[in-house]
Write a structure and sequence with these properties.
single chain, alpha/beta, 12 helices, 8 strands, globular
Protein backbone atom coordinates (compact mmCIF):
# COMPACT_ATOMS: atom_id res chain seq x y z
CA UNK A 1 0.00 0.00 0.00
CA UNK A 2 2.01 2.96 -1.29
CA UNK A 3 0.94 6.21 0.39
CA UNK A 4 -1.19 8.58 -1.68
CA UNK A 5 1.12 11.47 -2.41
CA UNK A 6 -1.79 13.90 -2.73
CA UNK A 7 -3.24 13.10 0.69
CA UNK A 8 -0.87 15.39 2.62
CA UNK A 9 -1.66 18.30 0.29
CA UNK A 10 -5.38 17.62 0.65
CA UNK A 11 -5.09 17.67 4.43
CA UNK A 12 -3.19 20.96 4.28
CA UNK A 13 -5.78 22.41 1.88
CA UNK A 14 -8.48 21.68 4.46
CA UNK A 15 -6.66 23.36 7.35
CA UNK A 16 -8.57 26.37 8.76
CA UNK A 17 -7.23 29.80 7.80
CA UNK A 18 -9.53 32.17 9.68
CA UNK A 19 -6.96 33.67 12.05
CA UNK A 20 -3.38 34.88 11.65
CA UNK A 21 -2.19 31.91 13.71
CA UNK A 22 -4.15 29.41 11.57
CA UNK A 23 -2.84 30.92 8.33
CA UNK A 24 0.69 30.79 9.71
CA UNK A 25 0.31 27.15 10.73
CA UNK A 26 -1.03 26.15 7.30
CA UNK A 27 1.78 28.06 5.57
CA UNK A 28 4.51 26.36 7.56
CA UNK A 29 2.89 22.92 7.26
CA UNK A 30 3.06 23.23 3.48
CA UNK A 31 6.62 24.58 3.52
CA UNK A 32 7.66 21.73 5.82
CA UNK A 33 6.04 19.12 3.60
CA UNK A 34 7.82 20.26 0.45
CA UNK A 35 10.95 21.87 1.97
CA UNK A 36 12.34 22.84 -1.45
CA UNK A 37 12.49 26.64 -1.27
CA UNK A 38 15.98 28.05 -1.75
CA UNK A 39 15.91 29.55 1.75
CA UNK A 40 14.64 26.42 3.53
CA UNK A 41 17.84 24.39 3.76
CA UNK A 42 20.14 27.14 5.15
CA UNK A 43 17.53 28.38 7.65
CA UNK A 44 16.57 24.90 8.78
CA UNK A 45 20.21 23.90 9.11
CA UNK A 46 20.84 27.01 11.21
CA UNK A 47 17.93 26.28 13.56
CA UNK A 48 18.70 22.59 14.01
CA UNK A 49 22.47 23.11 14.21
CA UNK A 50 22.16 25.89 16.77
CA UNK A 51 19.72 23.86 18.88
CA UNK A 52 21.98 20.79 18.84
CA UNK A 53 25.06 22.85 19.70
CA UNK A 54 23.18 24.48 22.56
CA UNK A 55 22.00 21.11 23.89
CA UNK A 56 25.55 19.77 23.83
CA UNK A 57 26.66 22.68 26.02
CA UNK A 58 23.57 22.20 28.19
CA UNK A 59 24.53 18.57 28.84
CA UNK A 60 28.14 19.45 29.61
CA UNK A 61 27.37 22.32 31.96
CA UNK A 62 24.10 21.20 33.50
CA UNK A 63 24.71 17.50 34.21
CA UNK A 64 27.07 15.81 36.62
CA UNK A 65 27.50 12.88 34.26
CA UNK A 66 26.34 11.88 30.78
CA UNK A 67 26.90 8.29 29.68
CA UNK A 68 26.05 7.04 26.19
CA UNK A 69 26.55 3.42 25.17
CA UNK A 70 26.79 2.27 21.56
CA UNK A 71 26.07 5.61 19.90
CA UNK A 72 28.04 4.33 16.92
CA UNK A 73 25.12 2.04 16.10
CA UNK A 74 23.23 5.17 15.11
CA UNK A 75 26.03 7.33 13.73
CA UNK A 76 27.36 4.50 11.54
CA UNK A 77 23.95 4.17 9.91
CA UNK A 78 23.63 7.94 9.47
CA UNK A 79 27.06 8.53 8.01
CA UNK A 80 27.42 5.69 5.58
CA UNK A 81 26.21 6.09 2.02
CA UNK A 82 22.65 4.85 2.31
CA UNK A 83 19.82 4.04 -0.06
CA UNK A 84 17.20 3.64 2.66
CA UNK A 85 15.72 6.08 5.15
CA UNK A 86 16.15 5.80 8.92
CA UNK A 87 13.63 5.63 11.74
CA UNK A 88 14.68 5.88 15.38
CA UNK A 89 12.33 5.08 18.25
CA UNK A 90 12.75 5.75 21.96
CA UNK A 91 10.89 6.06 25.23
CA UNK A 92 9.53 9.49 26.20
CA UNK A 93 10.45 10.81 29.68
CA UNK A 94 9.78 14.54 29.40
CA UNK A 95 8.64 17.30 27.08
CA UNK A 96 12.29 18.34 26.81
CA UNK A 97 13.56 14.97 25.49
CA UNK A 98 13.86 16.48 22.05
CA UNK A 99 16.14 18.38 21.63
CA UNK A 100 18.07 17.50 24.84
CA UNK A 101 18.96 13.92 23.87
CA UNK A 102 20.51 15.02 20.56
CA UNK A 103 23.14 16.95 22.47
CA UNK A 104 25.00 13.63 22.71
CA UNK A 105 25.58 13.53 18.94
CA UNK A 106 29.16 14.13 17.73
CA UNK A 107 29.94 17.69 16.66
CA UNK A 108 30.71 16.63 13.10
CA UNK A 109 27.00 15.91 12.54
CA UNK A 110 25.43 19.00 14.12
CA UNK A 111 25.34 21.03 10.90
CA UNK A 112 24.88 18.23 8.35
CA UNK A 113 21.26 18.25 7.08
CA UNK A 114 21.37 14.60 6.00
CA UNK A 115 22.35 13.59 9.54
CA UNK A 116 19.76 15.58 11.49
CA UNK A 117 16.42 14.16 12.51
CA UNK A 118 12.88 15.03 11.64
CA UNK A 119 10.63 14.31 14.59
CA UNK A 120 6.96 14.25 15.51
CA UNK A 121 6.03 16.72 18.28
CA UNK A 122 2.77 17.68 19.97
CA UNK A 123 1.12 20.53 18.08
CA UNK A 124 -0.72 21.85 21.13
CA UNK A 125 2.53 22.28 23.05
CA UNK A 126 4.79 23.62 20.32
CA UNK A 127 2.79 25.37 17.62
CA UNK A 128 1.20 28.05 19.81
CA UNK A 129 2.17 31.25 17.99
CA UNK A 130 3.26 32.26 14.45
CA UNK A 131 6.85 32.78 15.63
CA UNK A 132 6.89 29.34 17.25
CA UNK A 133 5.28 27.89 14.11
CA UNK A 134 8.25 29.11 12.08
CA UNK A 135 10.83 28.00 14.65
CA UNK A 136 9.55 24.44 15.07
CA UNK A 137 8.81 23.97 11.37
CA UNK A 138 12.37 25.00 10.48
CA UNK A 139 13.55 22.87 13.41
CA UNK A 140 12.15 19.82 11.60
CA UNK A 141 9.50 19.13 14.23
CA UNK A 142 6.34 17.80 12.59
CA UNK A 143 3.12 18.96 14.35
CA UNK A 144 1.22 15.95 15.67
CA UNK A 145 -2.31 15.94 17.06
CA UNK A 146 -2.83 13.30 19.74
CA UNK A 147 -5.88 11.19 19.02
CA UNK A 148 -6.08 12.04 15.30
CA UNK A 149 -4.91 8.56 14.36
CA UNK A 150 -2.43 7.09 11.91
CA UNK A 151 -3.76 8.90 8.82
CA UNK A 152 -3.26 12.42 10.15
CA UNK A 153 -1.09 15.07 8.51
CA UNK A 154 1.92 14.39 10.76
CA UNK A 155 2.18 10.78 9.60
CA UNK A 156 1.79 11.86 5.96
CA UNK A 157 4.64 14.36 6.35
CA UNK A 158 6.72 11.70 8.13
CA UNK A 159 6.15 9.36 5.18
CA UNK A 160 7.15 12.11 2.78
CA UNK A 161 10.44 12.58 4.62
CA UNK A 162 11.13 8.84 4.62
CA UNK A 163 10.47 8.75 0.89
CA UNK A 164 13.09 11.50 0.59
CA UNK A 165 15.58 9.23 2.37
CA UNK A 166 15.56 11.29 5.58
CA UNK A 167 15.88 10.33 9.24
CA UNK A 168 12.63 10.45 11.23
CA UNK A 169 12.58 10.06 15.01
CA UNK A 170 9.42 8.95 16.83
CA UNK A 171 8.44 8.69 20.48
CA UNK A 172 5.90 5.88 19.95
CA UNK A 173 4.47 6.03 23.47
CA UNK A 174 2.61 9.07 22.16
CA UNK A 175 2.96 11.15 25.30
CA UNK A 176 5.35 11.78 28.18
CA UNK A 177 5.53 8.78 30.49
CA UNK A 178 7.40 9.03 33.79
CA UNK A 179 6.12 5.74 35.19
CA UNK A 180 8.21 2.59 35.57
CA UNK A 181 6.44 0.69 32.77
CA UNK A 182 6.58 1.88 29.17
CA UNK A 183 3.26 2.58 27.48
CA UNK A 184 1.99 0.57 24.54
CA UNK A 185 3.43 1.98 21.32
CA UNK A 186 1.12 3.80 18.92
CA UNK A 187 0.59 2.46 15.42
CA UNK A 188 1.68 5.53 13.43
CA UNK A 189 5.32 4.46 13.32
CA UNK A 190 4.19 1.03 12.12
CA UNK A 191 2.34 2.60 9.23
CA UNK A 192 5.36 4.71 8.27
CA UNK A 193 7.64 1.68 8.28
CA UNK A 194 5.17 -0.36 6.23
CA UNK A 195 4.25 2.25 3.64
CA UNK A 196 7.55 4.02 2.98
CA UNK A 197 8.69 3.47 -0.61
CA UNK A 198 11.89 1.92 0.75
CA UNK A 199 11.57 0.16 4.07
CA UNK A 200 13.51 2.20 6.67
CA UNK A 201 16.34 0.93 8.79
CA UNK A 202 15.06 1.19 12.37
CA UNK A 203 17.34 1.97 15.32
CA UNK A 204 15.85 1.58 18.85
CA UNK A 205 17.07 3.69 21.75
CA UNK A 206 16.48 4.03 25.47
CA UNK A 207 17.44 6.91 27.76
CA UNK A 208 16.75 8.07 31.29
CA UNK A 209 17.51 11.19 33.29
CA UNK A 210 15.33 13.86 31.66
CA UNK A 211 12.34 13.26 33.93
CA UNK A 212 14.41 14.37 36.93
CA UNK A 213 15.17 17.75 35.38
CA UNK A 214 11.68 18.29 33.97
CA UNK A 215 9.01 16.46 35.98
CA UNK A 216 5.40 16.60 34.91
CA UNK A 217 3.09 19.20 36.42
CA UNK A 218 5.85 21.56 37.50
CA UNK A 219 4.58 25.15 37.61
CA UNK A 220 7.13 26.51 35.14
CA UNK A 221 7.79 24.01 32.29
CA UNK A 222 11.53 24.68 32.03
CA UNK A 223 14.32 22.10 32.44
CA UNK A 224 16.11 22.47 35.76
CA UNK A 225 19.33 20.46 35.71
CA UNK A 226 21.59 20.24 38.72
CA UNK A 227 25.27 20.10 37.68
CA UNK A 228 26.07 18.44 40.99
CA UNK A 229 23.41 15.75 40.72
CA UNK A 230 21.75 15.42 37.30
CA UNK A 231 22.73 12.43 35.17
CA UNK A 232 21.72 11.19 31.73
CA UNK A 233 22.15 7.65 30.48
CA UNK A 234 21.42 6.53 26.92
CA UNK A 235 21.80 3.21 25.16
CA UNK A 236 21.42 2.63 21.42
CA UNK A 237 20.34 -0.78 20.17
CA UNK A 238 21.06 -2.83 17.08
CA UNK A 239 19.46 -1.78 13.81
CA UNK A 240 16.26 -3.61 12.90
CA UNK A 241 15.30 -4.53 9.34
CA UNK A 242 11.60 -4.99 8.61
CA UNK A 243 12.08 -5.30 4.84
CA UNK A 244 11.38 -9.08 4.77
CA UNK A 245 8.18 -8.66 6.79
CA UNK A 246 7.03 -5.72 4.69
CA UNK A 247 7.76 -7.67 1.50
CA UNK A 248 5.66 -10.59 2.71
CA UNK A 249 2.87 -8.19 3.70
CA UNK A 250 2.79 -6.56 0.26
CA UNK A 251 2.76 -9.92 -1.52
CA UNK A 252 -0.04 -11.29 0.67
CA UNK A 253 -2.07 -8.09 0.49
CA UNK A 254 -2.19 -8.16 -3.30
CA UNK A 255 -4.22 -11.38 -3.15
CA UNK A 256 -6.82 -10.21 -0.63
CA UNK A 257 -10.13 -8.42 -0.77
CA UNK A 258 -10.29 -4.86 0.55
CA UNK A 259 -11.79 -6.00 3.83
CA UNK A 260 -9.22 -8.75 4.31
CA UNK A 261 -6.40 -6.34 3.40
CA UNK A 262 -7.50 -3.89 6.12
CA UNK A 263 -7.37 -6.67 8.72
CA UNK A 264 -3.94 -7.76 7.51
CA UNK A 265 -2.66 -4.17 7.63
CA UNK A 266 -3.68 -3.94 11.27
CA UNK A 267 -2.08 -7.27 12.15
CA UNK A 268 1.23 -6.28 10.57
CA UNK A 269 1.22 -2.84 12.21
CA UNK A 270 0.69 -4.49 15.58
CA UNK A 271 3.47 -7.00 14.90
CA UNK A 272 5.90 -4.20 14.03
CA UNK A 273 5.12 -1.95 17.00
CA UNK A 274 5.23 -4.97 19.34
CA UNK A 275 8.73 -5.76 18.09
CA UNK A 276 9.75 -2.12 18.53
CA UNK A 277 8.36 -2.04 22.08
CA UNK A 278 10.21 -5.27 22.89
CA UNK A 279 13.50 -3.88 21.58
CA UNK A 280 13.25 -0.63 23.54
CA UNK A 281 12.14 -2.50 26.65
CA UNK A 282 15.14 -4.83 26.35
CA UNK A 283 17.39 -1.78 26.19
CA UNK A 284 15.64 -0.46 29.30
CA UNK A 285 16.39 -3.68 31.20
CA UNK A 286 20.03 -3.66 30.06
CA UNK A 287 20.30 0.01 30.99
CA UNK A 288 19.07 -0.62 34.53
CA UNK A 289 21.97 -3.02 35.09
CA UNK A 290 24.51 -0.56 33.69
CA UNK A 291 23.06 2.37 35.64
CA UNK A 292 23.35 0.43 38.89
CA UNK A 293 26.89 -0.61 38.04
CA UNK A 294 27.87 3.00 37.38
CA UNK A 295 26.24 4.18 40.59
CA UNK A 296 23.79 6.45 38.74
CA UNK A 297 20.66 4.78 40.10
CA UNK A 298 20.29 7.19 43.02
CA UNK A 299 19.42 9.92 40.55
CA UNK A 300 17.20 7.90 38.19
Amino acid sequence: MIPDRSRAHELIDHLPRQTWHERSFAYWAEKQLVANDSWWKPLSTAVVGTATTTMSLFLRLGFRKVVVDDLHKLTDVLERERNRPIVTVANHESTADDPIIWGVMPARLWWKPDCTRWTLGARELLYKHPILNAFFALGQTIPTVRGDGIYQLAVEIGLRKLNENKWVHVFPEGRVNQEAQMLRFKWGVGRMIMEAERTPIVVPMFFTGTKQIMPLRQKVPVPRPNPLKSTLYMKVGDAMDFAPLVGEWKAARAKLSSEEAVRLDEQVRIAIVDQLWGSVNSLKIESAVKIQKLGLDDNQ
